[in-house]
Write a structure and sequence with these properties.
Layout lengths: L1 H45 L5 H4 L7 E2 L28 H14 E9 L2 E11 L2 E5 H8 L6 E5 L4 E3 L6 E4 L5 E5 L26 E7 L13 E7 L1 E3 L3 E3 L12 E3 L2 E4 L10 E4 L7 E9 L5 E5 L2 H7 L7 E2 L3 E4 L2 E4 L16 E5 L14 E3 L11 E2 L14 H6 L11 H18 L12 H6 L35 E6 L2 E7 L1 H15 L2 E2 L3 E6 L4 E2 L8 E4 L2 H21 L14 H13 L3 E6 L8 H17 L5 H15 L2 E4 L2 E4 L11 H23 L9 H7 L5 H4 E6 L2 E6 L9 H9 L5 E2 L20 E2 L2 E5 L6 E5 L1 H6 L3 E3 L6 H14 L4 H17 L9 H9 L4
Parallel strand pairs: 18-26, 27-31
Antiparallel strand pairs: 1-16, 2-3, 2-5, 3-4, 4-8, 5-6, 7-8, 9-10, 9-15, 11-14, 12-13, 14-17, 15-16, 16-17, 19-20, 21-32, 22-39, 23-28, 24-25, 27-29, 30-34, 30-35, 31-32, 33-34, 36-37, 37-38
Helix pairs in contact: 7-12, 7-14, 9-10, 12-13, 12-14
Length: 881
């Protein structure tokens, strides 16, 4: 009985083995058959010529790289199923939301304009930092276009011209993919590498998946959203290899694209390339592939398998790994930025990323009424020609929202310089700063929180932070009643050595700890600057020109001072040796020294003013400025890796700042927030870069002028290092004054500079802001030779130069005070301030204005504390004070 059973089992096993062998043979034969079919297909594709039928979607080939959206896109019947988070069976709602946010943020298009309204639109997906993944047939097409083709970067709300040569990319071997890197003036991507599948999990994935197709931007609305179509599909994994014809196959040298592992599914259509395939498995990293081709008939689509391991092996290491755009932690609460633009209080239009809205609790409600008011002596000492600023859309004098009008300049980026030119300018500025900016402390390093808040009393310049200003987002929303500034966040006492810090609000400490950890990990925190309208008196003809001040969060101010204060103080101390007037006392020998330094170079003055300089700073220049500062710390002894990483991250927090306008959070592509702790010095460095790039270009374009020079002079001029041989310049933020030597004044002057900067959409006008430049250069006493709103004047009897402030601005000072200031003290102080500004205009003017002031207050039976002109002169030049 046992023998019979054993025999039966033995023959059963043999039967199973035969069956399995037959199955294996059948599969083997099937694979051979498929391979032969692919070989035949490849041979056919190799000899296939692109015709007009192919361009119109009538290609006889079975598959194609579905290149792009255009006006000739054929209608494809596709199964579209919109999936809301709650209807997803297996993928968690949290993962779905995170993926949707990341895909919307990271999907972008490279658009090439062909003329006659035709475009090549190539969808790509950002991976992290400036790295992206694209498809080879896109880049084959782009690389064959004429060199003068206009190339643009575009996403939902941005359409920005870029230099295609500034996009670096490489083709991936045995793949249809391209790994690339965008220029640094494009906003960073969310890190989605972590969302790609681990290779070891691929074989165990379920069949159910989504093909996520982002809709192309239409730019019809002020604030667009990226709509995603989630196609529900059954996907099948293949490892038998796949060929896609080369889109530019005009000879036998261009082989079809081959990739080994791919997915197939039924959804398909022209323009779907670059869509992500996402598994419906319960995973935190469900992205499994990228749509790369489809059958012309529309029956099937194909996606190349992409794993996290593949991407990690292809991407270079970066210091900044990710960005936070979803919101920020505040104590125990996470302030979420909701991607619902129906709740926006005011629409904003321009080139930037619109992130969403904050809860009403954290929205900013600006005051509708100015705090400026007339003083006691309004129109009694001098006649006022100024008025209140435009602060509200209900102001009967003007139309529209002043806030929207002002913020719109944050969304008008300039055109970037060519990277090769900027690199030369950066190197020259870097060498100048490294040679002349010396630390005031023996050892530069990260300051403590106490040092950042209270300063270092024993060292000149290391002052405490200002406490009488706003605490910024989100702290201003929870400010206790009875306070009107940030002092409530600190427990302080004042002694002989200044402030002493006892404690800091626990929520502020938590926010700083949270963001510090993010920066050390290479994550850019969600730091938000509140946009406020400047409440200052303005000339009546300029009251409609609204000005925005973007308030820095107090946590950012403290941590920025910790990491940058050593450089800030050292740079300010260096002054003229680094072409800077930051820290200048205009009513002192400083002004005389500056003018003499300029005249030692030449008597031909060139002055200028930029329109909206701060809000439209070139991003690449801002980032290079932070690179210079970070390197300065390194060569001066701060070699801490975390400190360097934090400085670079903070540079991105400023260069791509997130602003809050009412309840709308938006991210800019240019400028620097006016309230950031390094605004003036940052503007200085960017201005230095601007002028050097202009110098390089104008020199190269005017080589014929060299015929007037000696060979030695020609050799010298051909390098940016010759800049200081022919130009002496002093900057104060966006303001500049310089003298230019005779040899180059014909092509390096006010008019030529204005024309040059227009190429980059930068408005450079004369210092008087007349919107035009009348002459190439000026002389020392000309009205056009203006700096810091002052002209140059001879002292009444000393051999020094004085700074003469505009008399209209001087005489307006006494007419205005702020609400809440006690009278008559406020008006007395306004009169005293007016007289301080009047000194540089000379004894006669000062004395007659002082007489009018004293006469007014005599009638009020009060005596202002206003010294005579001679007393002021003695204090400035003889007292050694």
């Amino acid at each position: 009985m046992y023998i019979v059973g054993i025999c039966a089992a033995f023959y059963g096993i043999l039967d199973v083995c035969d069956t399995m062998h037959n199955i294996v043979d059948a599969r083997h034969e099937r694979r051979i058959q498929i391979r032969k079919q692919n070989e035949l297909r490849a041979a056919f594709l190799k000899n296939h010529k692109i015709t007009k039928d192919c361009e119109e979607g009538k290609c006889p080939c079975r598959t194609e790289g579905q290149l792009a959206y255009d006006q000739y896109r054929p209608t494809i019947i596709k199964k579209k199923v919109e999936i809301a988070p709650k209807t997803i069976a297996q993928m968690s709602a949290e993962v779905h939301t995170c993926l949707a946010t990341a895909i919307r943020r990271n999907t972008f298009y490279i658009i090439a304009s062909l003329g006659n309204g035709k475009e090549v639109v190539c969808r790509c997906i950002g991976l992290r930092n400036h790295n992206f993944i694209g498809l080879d047939h896109y880049f084959h097409r782009l690389s064959c276009l004429p060199l003068d083709t206009c190339i643009e970067f575009a996403n939902t709300n941005i359409r920005q011209v870029i230099n295609f040569k500034d996009i670096s990319y490489k083709y991936v071997k045995n793949s249809g993919l391209v790994i690339g890197k965008l220029p640094i003036d494009i906003p960073l991507f969310k890190n989605i590498v972590k969302y790609f599948i681990d290779g070891k999990l691929v074989n165990n994935l379920p069949h159910k998946a989504f093909v996520v197709e982002p809709e192309p931007p239409n730019y019809n609305n002020k604030m667009n959203t990226c709509d995603l179509t989630w196609h529900v599909e059954d996907i099948t994994l293949h490892d038998d290899g796949f060929n896609v014809p080369h889109v530019m196959a005009i000879n036998d040298d261009l082989k079809p694209t081959f990739f080994q592992h791919y997915w197939s599914y039924k959804v398909n259509g022209r323009g779907m390339c670059g869509s992500l395939v996402i598994s419906n498995a319960q995973l935190s990293n469900p992205i499994v592939g990228i749509h790369i081709a489809g059958m012309v008939s529309g029956e099937r689509g194909y996606a190349e398998l992409v794993t996290k391991e593949t991407l990690v092996s292809l991407l270079d290491a970066v210091e900044i790994e990710d960005i936070e755009i979803e919101g920020q932690m505040f104590g125990d609460e996470y302030i979420k930025i909701e991607n619902n633009f129906d709740k926006v209080k005011s629409n904003l239009e321009g080139t930037g990323n619109f992130l969403g809205v904050v809860p009403n609790k954290y929205a900013y409600n600006p005051p509708s009424k100015s705090k400026c008011k007339h003083s006691m002596c309004y129109n009694k000492i001098t006649i006022s020609t100024y008025d209140l600023p435009h602060l509200h859309n209900k102001d009967p004098r003007f139309e529209g929202s002043p806030m929207v009008k002002g913020c719109s300049y944050h969304l008008k980026p300039v055109k970037p310089f060519e990277q090769s030119l900027l690199k030369l300018a950066v190197n020259d500025v870097k060498e100048l700063i490294f040679a002349n900016v010396r630390p005031l402390r023996q050892r530069v390093c990260k300051l403590s929180i106490t040092q950042s808040v209270c300063g270092i009393p024993k060292i000149e310049g290391y002052d405490a932070m200002e406490f009488d200003t706003s605490e910024g987002f989100p702290f201003s929303s929870v400010r206790p009643s009875g306070f009107n500034d940030k002092k409530w966040l600190f427990d302080l006492s004042v002694g002989a050595d200044g402030y002493k810090l006892h404690s800091v609000d626990h929520r502020l400490m938590q926010v700083m700890k949270y963001k510090d950890n993010q920066r050390k990990q290479g994550i850019v925190p969600c730091t938000i600057f509140i946009d406020c309208l400047k409440d200052i008196k303005l000339p009546k003809e300029k009251c409609h020109k609204t000005r925005i001040f973007s308030v820095s969060p107090v946590d950012f101010t403290i941590q920025f001072r910790q990491l940058f204060y050593d450089f800030t103080i050292a740079f300010q101390k260096a002054m003229f040796s680094v072409e800077s007037a930051v820290g200048i006392n205009v009513d002192s020998y400083d002004w005389n020294d500056m003018v003499r330094k300029l005249l030692d170079n030449s008597d031909k003055f060139v002055c200028g003013d930029y329109s909206k300089f701060g809000p439209r700073l070139m991003t690449s220049c801002v980032l290079e400025a932070f690179n210079i500062i970070s390197e300065w710390y390194y060569i001066n002894g701060d070699t801490n890796i975390n400190n360097r990483k934090c400085r670079l991250v903070m540079g991105h927090e400023i260069a791509f700042a997130k602003h809050l306008m009412f309840n709308l959070v938006y991210e800019v592509m240019s400028g620097a927030p006016s309230g950031c702790p390094i605004t003036t010095i940052l503007n200085n460095i960017v201005n230095m870069l601007y002028l050097r790039v202009a110098y390089i270009v104008l020199l190269r374009e005017n080589l014929m002028i060299y015929k007037k020079l000696s060979n030695i002079e020609v050799t010298s001029l051909c390098s940016v290092s010759s800049f200081k041989n022919y130009i002496c310049v002093i900057f104060y933020g966006d303001d500049l004054i310089m003298t230019v030597k005779e040899q180059i004044i014909s092509f390096f002057n006010s008019v030529k500079l204005s024309i040059f900067f227009k190429r980059y959409d930068i408005d450079f006008t004369d210092a008087l802001k007349t919107d035009s430049i009348g002459k190439d250069y000026a002389t020392v006493y000309d009205r056009e030779t203006s700096f810091l709103k002052r002209t140059i004047r001879k002292h009444d009897f000393r051999f020094v130069y004085t700074a003469a402030m505009d008399k209209r601005a001087i005489e307006e000072t006494c007419n205005w005070v702020f609400e809440g200031h006690v009278e008559p003290e406020a008006s007395l102080i306004a009169c005293e301030a007016m007289m301080l500004n009047a000194f540089g205009c000379g004894r006669d003017y000062y004395c007659q204005l002082r007489s009018r002031v004293m006469e007014f207050w005599r009638k009020e039976r009060l005596v202002p504390r206003i010294p005579t002109w001679d007393e002021v002169d003695w204090r400035i030049y003889d007292s050694n004070l």
